Amino acid sequence: MTHPTLIIIDMQRGMLDPAAGERNNPQAPLRMAELLQAWRLAAAPVVHVRHISRSAGSQFAPGQSGVEFQPALQPLPREHVVEKNVPDAFIHSGLERWLRVRGIDSLVIVGVSTNNSVEATARSAGNLGFTTYVVADGCFTFAKVDYQGVLRSAGEVHAMALANLQDEYAQVIESQAALALLKQV
């Protein structure tokens, strides 16, 4: 049995920009850093996902400071880095092949934003047959206006995204449960 792979999604400097608006889970980056440290101590696989925008004016465009990883979650040379141009980390990235070649079948997903890249990646992971866990206190998102024009708080958007994933694509867990998964191997 192999360790589950920790996948950290889009924890880039641009996510710190206050212009993104209200967000939930202010402790999520700390939970991510704690999980990353535990994975490193266990010599378990880690994948860092970075969004690279196709729009030249984006803070996530190549050469912009927003595209860089946040210092506390900077990849080590031995850790795999995936670059993506769409929310789903499996699309056109080689991630599935990288995992399959290593015999990895279990994923623990953290990052931002819960209702976008985290949800898209977790849906694909579940559809591809990976045992998938999304760490609720290791993800965050931003307030968003819904289809009917109602402003939803970041907490509401986060909760709905997790509800979309629970049991159908992934198991939604807390960081302590993720640490317990790591210790089961």
Mean pLDDT level = 94
- Rg from alpha-carbon coordinates: 15 Å
The CATH class: Alpha Beta
Calculate the terminal CA-CA distance, rounded to whole Å.
Answer: 7 Å
* Proportion of helical residues: 25-40%
Q: Structural class from helices and strands?
A: alpha/beta
Protein name: Nicotinamidase-related amidase
GO molecular function, one term: hydrolase activity
InterPro entries: Isochorismatase-like_dom, Isochorismatase-like_hydrls, Isochorismatase-like_sf
Domain Isochorismatase-like: 5-175
Describe the structure.
The chain has helices at residues 28-41, 95-101, 114-127, 154-165, 175-183, and strands at residues 5-9, 46-51, 80-84, 106-112, 131-140, 144-145, 151-152, 171-173. The protein is α/β, with parallel strands linked by helices and 185 residues long. The protein has a single domain (5-183), classed as Isochorismatase-like (Rossmann fold, 3-Layer(aba) Sandwich). The strands form two sheets. The protein has a six-stranded parallel sheet with strand order 3-2-1-4-5-8, with helices on both faces. It has a two-stranded antiparallel sheet with strand order 6-7. The longest helix has 14 residues, at 28-41. It is globular and about 45 Å long. The termini are close together. The model has no long low-confidence stretch (mean pLDDT 94).
